[in-house]
Automatic annotation (TrEMBL):
Gene3D superfamilies on file: 3.30.70.100
Organism: Drosophila mauritiana (Fruit fly)
All copies of domain Acylphosphatase-like, residue ranges: 10-100
Chain's gene name: LOC117146849
Name the UniProt record assigns to this protein: Acylphosphatase-1
Family: Belongs to the acylphosphatase family.
Length: 103
C-alpha cells in the first residue's frame, strides 16, 4: 500500500511594483525557506522581480498570499503573476535563493 504523496509543482513568477531590492529579496527568501519552497528570485528591472518556485501547490499558494499580505510591501506591490504551473518529477533547486542577473 502506497501513501498518497503530494505532487511537486514548478512555476515561474513575477512580482511588479516599486519595492526595495534587498529588503524584498530577503523577505521572499525567508518566506520561501520557511514554507519549504525551492527556486530563486531575481530583480530584472527597477519595478519587476521574477523567479521560479518549486513545491506543493498549496505551499506555492501560501507563498503568494504571504507576499501579497506583507504589510511593509502591500502598498508597493502592483501584481503577482504565476505562469507555467506544472507537475515536475523532481526538484531542480536545493533551496530558495537570490540569483544575481548577469548583464
Amino acid at each position: 500500500m502506497t501513501g498518497q504523496k503530494e505532487e511537486i509543482l514548478g512555476c515561474d513568477f513575477e512580482v511588479r511594483g516599486k519595492l526595495p531590492k534587498e529588503a524584498f529579496e530577503l523577505f521572499a527568501v525567508v518566506q520561501a525557506n520557511t514554507l519549504g519552497l525551492r527556486g530563486f528570485i531575481t530583480q530584472v528591472s527597477e519595478e519587476k522581480f521574477k523567479g521560479r518556485l518549486e513545491g506543493e501547490g498549496k505551499v506555492i499558494d501560501a507563498f503568494k498570499k504571504f507576499i501579497l499580505a506583507a504589510s511593509e510591501f502591500v502598498q508597493a506591490i502592483k501584481e503577482f503573476i504565476i505562469k507555467n504551473l506544472k507537475v515536475i518529477k523532481e526538484y531542480t533547486y536545493k533551496t530558495f535563493e537570490i540569483k544575481v542577473e548577469r548583464k
